[in-house]
Design brief:
CATH topology of one domain: Acetylcholine Binding Protein, Chain: A
Strand order of the largest sheet: 1-11-4-5-8-7
Number of helices: 12
CATH architecture of one domain: Distorted Sandwich
Helix content: 25-40%
Radius of gyration: 35 Å
Mean pLDDT: 77
Low-confidence stretches: 32-58, 268-276, 528-544
Shape: elongated
Number of strands: 15
Distance between the termini: 55 Å
Strand content: 15-25%
Structural class: alpha+beta
Order of helices and strands: HEHEEEEEEEEEEEEHEEHHHHHHHHH
Length: 544
């Protein structure tokens, strides 16, 4: 079970996942607006249940991500479809033909159009498999050469997954004849990916799953050695689309986040003329897939069948009690045994979890129903056998009470099945899965994103080492300058010569103080467990 969170922590996580439905590409599609935040108006049944506290209050998804029912009031809907993954791709230049500009700020920027096909989802073994195809687009400087330049192949590192590269190649787009400044290149890469994820089954079969693909590290591969990564790839756009080849799972738009965005306005390497128009870029991303179980099979073939078995079992209540006690009890016992066998046959396909799912609670209440019917039968039999009910009028009233009891149980279980099937039947009420914001906020801890390297800390650590070396060299120069001043005084050189050396010494001391201030700032910004800051802080250079 997810650990309980305070309202402050929950609010912070909700702000973190805000606008999650619009993060299927990077940079985010700016044309999407908050107009999609139209919430599903809850029915009167749902409002009544929530007001009574019988249902946990669930927030609503945005209008475009609400799955339409297959039926309208139990009648088959024609032409219904569910295509959340086919969201509009941005029309910005970074997602299409790129920029035909001969400027370092625009060259060697790559656009990636990624299609992920879900081929295997195995909750029992916490395993999944994917097929991924990446289409590359980028431009290089036009060299006016007749032959193609030797370029490296685009690659992708997925340190948290098991990846097999099936194909990766690039080619020059000869149809782009209007470009005079740059050369347009296109490419394609195909990957087979497998990984492990602990699937949460609290709401089975009304569950939604987040499949975390961890870090996408885009790199350029060497042409000679497979897996030899030369340098990082600068992606200016990243569009991800997910489809499911499994009829049991419906995909939603993925969630893409850049780990560290580089803004050319903050990069000193770019020229001033390119700062205002140069696109941002990133090298690494995190990708999360959203999958929802298509539960109609379980509603009809699992819940529906167990409800029918339960109803068929407590039909024995309508059998006359006298001289038919064994027949009644055999029906109840047979129903319990059938439900037990059915429960374990379904449970073989599910992971063994330390909590009860919706299916477990349903089977439990069906067991209790049949046990309660058996207890009622024995109680009524003892009342007749012990002489508490002797008259025909009393027996008739007992028979009517059992009939009413049968119809009450029948109505309860019919309402229950309509409640779990109401969403798919288009009845306007029923059991809905938790909304995606609830799923994202209440994910169980699985050491996600443990493959993401903290580049800021690594950069600070290397900077500390560089400053320490520079300070050591400065101290040598300061000591040498002081010695030179002493020698000039002994040699009784002119005051002008000594004054020039003293000015040089003051400059060295000022530079030392500036670098010490920078080093102290870096030491305080880096966590203690890195080790090196403490060592740098206690070094003799700092003490001097």
């Amino acid at each position: 079970m997810p650990l309980p969170k305070s309202e402050a922590e929950r609010g912070e996580q909700e702000r973190t996942w805000d606008n999650y439905w619009n993060k299927y590409e990077w940079p985010e599609h700016q044309e999407e607006s908050t107009a999609h935040l139209q919430s599903r108006s809850p029915s009167c049944f749902r409002r009544l249940a929530e007001s009574c506290g019988k249902l946990q209050r669930r927030r609503t998804d945005i209008a475009e991500e609400i799955k339409p029912s297959k039926y309208i009031c139990c009648f088959k809907r024609r032409g219904h479809g569910f295509e959340q993954h086919l969201k509009k791709k941005s029309k910005a230049p970074g997602f299409h033909g790129m920029w035909d500009i001969k400027d370092p700020a625009f060259l060697d920027k790559v656009a990636c159009d990624c299609l992920i096909k879900v081929t295997t989802v195995d909750p029992k073994n916490s395993r999944f498999e994917l097929r991924m195809k990446c289409k590359w687009t980028f431009r290089t400087d036009h060299q006016n050469e007749r032959t193609e330049t030797k370029l490296r192949r685009p690659g992708l590192r997925l340190p948290g997954l098991i990846v097999t590269v099936d194909e990766s190649r690039i080619w020059k787009d000869l149809s782009d004849k209007d470009s005079s400044n740059t050369v347009l290149w296109r490419g394609i890469s195909r990957f087979t990916i497998s990984g492990f994820e602990r699937f949460e089954m609290h709401d089975f079969p009304f569950d939604r799953q987040i499949v975390n693909l961890d870090t996408f590290d885009f790199v350029w591969n060497s042409n000679t050695v497979e897996g030899d990564f030369d340098f990082s790839m600068n992606l200016c756009s990243f569009h991800v689309k997910c489809v499911s080849l499994l009829p049991e799972w419906d995909p939603y738009s993925p969630i893409v986040n850049a780990i560290r965005e580089h803004n050319p306005a903050n990069e000193s390497d770019y020229k001033v003329r390119a700062v205002e128009q140069a696109p941002p870029y990133a090298n690494r991303f995190t990708v999360k897939l959203r999958l929802e179980r298509a539960n109609w099979y379980y509603v009809a073939q699992v819940f529906g069948l167990t409800v029918m078995i339960t109803v068929a079992s407590f039909l024995g209540i309508l059998i006359p009690l006298e001289e038919n006690l064994p027949d009644r009890l055999s029906l109840f016992a047979g129903g319990i045994l059938t439900l037990t066998s059915f429960k374990y046959s379904v449970g073989d396909q599910l992971p063994s979890v330390p909590y009860s799912t919706n299916f477990d609670w349903c089977i439990l209440f069906q067991f209790l129903t049949l046990i309660f019917c058996a207890l009622e039968t024995l109680l009524a039999f003892r009342l007749i056998q012990d002489g508490y009910i002797e008259t025909e009028d009393g027996k008739q009233k007992l028979k009517e009470a059992e009939t009413y009891f049968f119809f009450a149980l029948l109505i309860v279980w019919m309402i229950y099945w309509l409640w779990i099937a109401g969403r798919d039947l288009g009845l306007g009420f029923g059991l809905w899965p938790h909304d995606w914001l609830y799923i994202l906020v209440n994910q169980e801890y699985q050491a996600e994103e443990d493959e993401i390297e903290d580049l800021c800390q690594k950069k600070n650590k290397s900077k500390i080492a560089e400053l320490s070396e520079e300070l050591a060299e400065l101290f040598k120069q300061i000591n040498a300058t002081r010695k030179k001043i002493a020698d000039l005084s002994e040699q009784k050189r002119s005051p002008d010569d000594i004054h020039r050396v003293r000015l040089h010494l003051d400059l060295l001391i000022a530079e030392r103080m500036e670098k010490e201030a920078d080093l102290n700032k870096l030491v305080h910004d880096v966590p203690i467990n890195m080790g090196s800051p403490d060592k740098a802080a206690s070094s003799p250079l700092m003490n001097n």
